[in-house]
Write a structure and sequence with these properties.
six-stranded parallel beta sheet; Rossmann fold; alpha/beta; 13 strands; globular; seven-stranded parallel beta sheet; 2 domains
Length: 342
Amino acid sequence: MRIVFRVDAGQIHHVAMGHAVRCLALANDLRTRGYEVLFLMREERSGNAFVAHQGFDVVLTESRDQIGQIARLHPDVAVFDVMDIGDAALGDLRAKGVKVVVIDDLGQKDLSADLVVNGNVVAGNHHYTGDVGSSLLGPSFAILGGDFDGKCNRRSSATLDSILVTMGGADPRGFTPIVVNSLVEKGIGKDILVVKGPAYGDRPIAKNMETGIKTQVRVQESVPDLSMLMVAADLVVSAGGRTAYELAATGTPSVLVPTAPHEVEVAKAMVAKGVAMAVSDADEGCLRRELVALVQSTSDLETRRRMADAGLRLIDGKGRSRVIDALVNLGRNREGFGWGND
């Protein structure tokens, strides 16, 4: 059986790497179950290479005829995690006998789909119109990798010593050096570990530090298991996308830095639920004005413990399995589709 994922990744405006990461989380499980999986993507070197490195075939999209190209690949199921496919196009694909799954974050769309998955913590983003067969809505369906299945943060330091900085796979806004320099200049944290995403490139991580600075800044890339770094940190400064859900699932206190407008609402929702602190807008000026005070507000151990407990209550890390089960059931309902032997 063949499943095609239509997704983009890399240095693409408002896309970055998170969409591909969650598709890969599903794809790896499906491949383990014996299904054929391939990816249809816009050409972007770092994003294409990131997916191909996981051992999946990547077909470059002909953007003017994406639906026709997908149909020519003869999939049983097409999974869309992009923002620019219209209702009519999806309906055309369904009319060809292909089951259509849409993974979305924003809602407020008119869709034609057999299944819609939206794990957004913001309830106002769950509204859809159109011909939608079924929906999986809310953080119980947040798609995280296997590394985040029930792993929680058992480490609690009385002082704020170890800080992890991870601004996503691409950090297209270039916020990483602003975060690192701000923390070092104020002497916050003894050990700052920066995770450099696969699409970050050769941009600098931080400016040259003056002699006498006591904070140790380390940089790591090609991290095999980010969850292990999360649970080892006293605090994480992170972008406000997919990583925010991973942090909640590991019970890791965090300060979120939205890098795109849709991440602002996610960050606000996480703050409202007691899971995180957050910069108020996806703006460099807000980041510079607010970051240090927010990080300092988490220095109290009891504050961080409350954030950790709230995160574990919100995200249990099992959303991927629930979505896989829904895909399996969707396939069982398709005539001639052989998922039923699982």
